[in-house]
Every structure is written in structure tokens, then in C-alpha cells.
Amino acid sequence: MSYEIRSMQPEDGAAVIAIFEEGIAGGNATFDQHAPSWEAWDDKYFKSCRFVLEDANDEVMGWAALQPISARDCYKGVAEVSIYLRNAAQGKGLGSMMLQKLILASEEEEFWMLQASIFPENQPSIIIHERFGFRTVGRRERLAQMNGVWRDVVLLERRSSVVGI
Questions:
Q1: How many CB atoms lie within 10 A of CB 84?
Q2: Which strands form 113-118's sheet, in the order they lie side by side?
């Protein structure tokens, strides 16, 4: 099957939220217990560096986007990575495609640092990030509770070799 990555459009909102809900249900993608409305999601993420992955039937199978880590001006070139795939699209190398596209676009938009916070149980995501130059900064132990259970998060970062050097 062939796939295409394209810029996210407002009409992709319902699919983006549905894919986020699949991630929540899986238990290893986010601390969020409920997906936000499209409007809240749209306000949270940068307007640039937003992509969807479509299959040959024009069905949205995944999304990738960047969000600010801080409102402070000194951190304007630092962003948090989010990549979500439908369950049916996982294990096919599509996360790698999405992350590569997001990295290239982030550098075009002058981001010098990307970070990712990933549950340690989500080893495929950690491996993909490391493959694209992310390094583990540390493990944040018992960072927050999820369904009454304390969860750790692995913090990874990638410094651009072309922006902010």
C-alpha cells in the first residue's frame, strides 16, 4: 500500500482527534484521559509543521505536529514532537516517515531543538527517535499518575545540525 504525507488541513480535525483517541486507549501514548476538541487541539499546536499521513484511499492514518514547550521567547526554537498512528498503521515504518518529515520541516521553520517525552514501555517510538538523532536526556521517574498508577517518562532531544549552530 502507498502512503502520502501532506500538510494538515482543518477538515482533518475529526480524523486527528479519532487517532489521538486510539492512542489514549492504547495506554502508552499520553497521560491524557480524553481527547480535546479540535479547537483546543488546534490552539495547542504550532500552525506550521503539522502533517497527516494518508493511505491510497485518502484515509488519514496518522498525524505529526509540534507544540511549544514554553511561551517564553527564548524557547521559540524548541518544540515537543507528537506523532500518532492508527493501530492498523503501526509497525510498517510509517512513524519513521512521519518523524523524518517533521524534522525537515522543523528546520525549515528555524527550530533548533526537538524534544519528545515517551513512556519507557513504548520502545518502538524510542527506537525510531534514536534512529533520527534523538538522545536520551534522562528518565523522569514517577512523573505523573495514569489511572492511579505512577508512570515514568523518557525524555529525548534532538539538536539540529543546521539551525542555531
A1: 25
A2: 3-7, 50-55, 60-68, 78-85, 113-118, 149-159, 135-146
Q: Hey, what's the cell of 35?
A: 481527547
Tens digits of per-residue pLDDT, 104-155? 999 999 999 999 999 999 999 999 999 999 999 999 999 999 999 999 999 9
- pLDDT for 1 equals 73
- CA distance linking residue 118 with residue 101, whole number of Å: 19
Cell digits of residue 107: 528546520
Q: Can you tell me the distance from the alpha carbon of 94 to that of 119, in angstroms, rounded to the nearest whole number?
A: 19
* pTM, rounded to two decimals: 0.95
For position 165, what pLDDT does the model report? 85
Angle between helix 123-131 and helix 94-108 axes, rounded to 10 deg: 50
Quickly list DSSP for 50-109.
EEEEEETTS-EEEEEEEEES-SSGGGTTEEEEEEEE-GGGTTSSHHHHHHHHHHHHHHHT
Task: Compute φ and ψ for 38, nearest 5 degrees.
Answer: -60, -40
